[in-house]
Amino acid sequence: MDAPLKAIIGLGNPETKYNNTRHNIGFMVVDKILQSYNIKLSEKFKAFFAKKDNILFLLPTTYMNLSGDAVIELVNFYKLKPSDLLVIYDDISLEIGTIRFRKDGSDGGHNGIKSIIKCLSSDKFNRLKVGIGPKNPNMDLAAFVLQKFSKEELEIIDKVSDIAKDGAIEWTKTDFEKIQSKYNKNWNLK
Predict the structure, then answer these.
(1) At residue 1, does pLDDT exceed 80?
(2) What kind and span of H or E run contains 68?
(3) What is the pTM of this model?
(4) Torsional sign, CA 129, 132, 136, 142
(5) DSSP state for residue 84 in the 8-state scheme
């Protein structure tokens, strides 16, 4: 019997002007996975899409606030359950260098997650949150998440996204609690 399908979904905004911005960390992690396996993307499901063995990869091109539009198309086409999904995205409440796997929960004020919960009518999907905080208290939230990482932050993000990439691939093969105990921490390797 074939292994069940799993979907790894990175959240972000599709235009190149958003490259290396805080809000695009989901795209950055999935890009690392695709590069490491030399996987090419095509356009499908209102997203950049790829399939390798039993793993589906999705980078919605709907922009962050409508991420659920792409996710629901994938879910419906492959008849996936919410628990078959791992959504990778930025979290301002976590310090840069921190990653956290979580089984389900509220949107925590994240519009991409809010859109996915609405389209799936469920919050029972797996998440991999990558810290982009702390937020500058004098800065508007939208301006902060659309801000590019500094050179120093990018060095940390490069290392952490490699670790997140490994965790996401491991998620497709192993027990969730094991993944949480191994990866949920601050990996700020200075």
Answers:
(1) no
(2) helix 67-78
(3) 0.95
(4) negative
(5) G
